[in-house]
Write a sequence for this structure.
């Protein structure tokens, strides 16, 4: 993989993770971050901790698909011999075995903000092949190996507390709000035919809030990877960006959280 040279501006594309943010998928392990040792012996009635040394350290508990994270093959693809639908050899490629070169490269940022907020309650508006083809008519065809980033603007809902409800709770849990824009099988088929191997989104999931499995099963079974819950895609040009995502190297994982950045010409 050829890395970019020359001066670059670095843009952080990773959401902040904290207990007050909608960092975890509803119904999954909530993100927890606690102190383990402080600089000195202290009395803390809320979170009592006995210091073990003149230093501070914290611990956290989090789901593999918390905050900005990667979906690896085993997230939806069972191992061969399991007898389950969609099982295959990619069901043995855990997150620690994913080729890192697939997670960086020149990126194409496709603006689909026109779809944001247009879905019915509990349903995601679909990113169609024509949205990709319209972008290509203005910026040129997608090239094999390019990373495609869907800029939906949905990250504007990623805020602390009750105001975070529109991000994932309202569309997914209560069904009171519109879902985030999500690509259907048609759009993912077009990307696969173009040779795109990694796709990112600033939404909670690449799948729709009303039927999220099919697009995962289609793409992950074909060796594609997803990076979900990105942010700041509004700051990126359509082209002229080098995308980098480095997940934690977790043994046997189905993906995992990490740090995403864009290197802008």
């Amino acid at each position: 993989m050829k890395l970019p040279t020359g001066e670059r501006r670095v843009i952080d594309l990773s959401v902040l993770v904290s207990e007050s943010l909608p960092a975890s998928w509803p119904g999954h392990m909530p993100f927890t971050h606690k102190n383990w040792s402080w600089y000195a012996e202290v009395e803390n009635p809320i979170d009592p901790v006995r210091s073990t040394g003149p230093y501070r350290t914290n611990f956290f508990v989090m789901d593999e698909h918390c905050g900005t994270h990667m979906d690896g093959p085993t997230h939806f693809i069972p191992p061969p011999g399991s007898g389950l639908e969609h099982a295959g050899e990619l069901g043995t490629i855990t997150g620690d075995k994913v080729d890192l070169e697939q997670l960086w490269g020149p990126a194409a940022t496709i603006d689909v903000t026109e779809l944001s907020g247009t879905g019915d309650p509990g349903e995601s508006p679909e990113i169609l092949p024509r949205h990709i083809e319209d972008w290509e008519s203005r910026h040129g065809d997608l090239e094999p190996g390019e990373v495609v980033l869907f800029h939906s603007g949905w990250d504007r809902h990623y805020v602390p507390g009750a105001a975070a409800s529109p991000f994932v709770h309202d569309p997914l849990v209560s069904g009171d709000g519109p879902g985030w824009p999500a690509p259907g099988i048609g759009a993912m088929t077009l990307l696969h035919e173009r040779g795109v191997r990694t796709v990112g989104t600033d939404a909670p999931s690449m799948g729709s809030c009303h039927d999220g499995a099919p697009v995962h099963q289609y793409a992950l079974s074909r060796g594609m990877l997803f990076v979900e819950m990105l942010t700041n895609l509004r700051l990126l040009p359509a082209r002229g960006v080098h995308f980098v995502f480095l997940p934690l190297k977790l043994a046997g994982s189905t993906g995992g959280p990490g740090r995403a950045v864009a290197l802008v010409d």
About this structure: DSSP finds four helices and twelve strands in the chain.
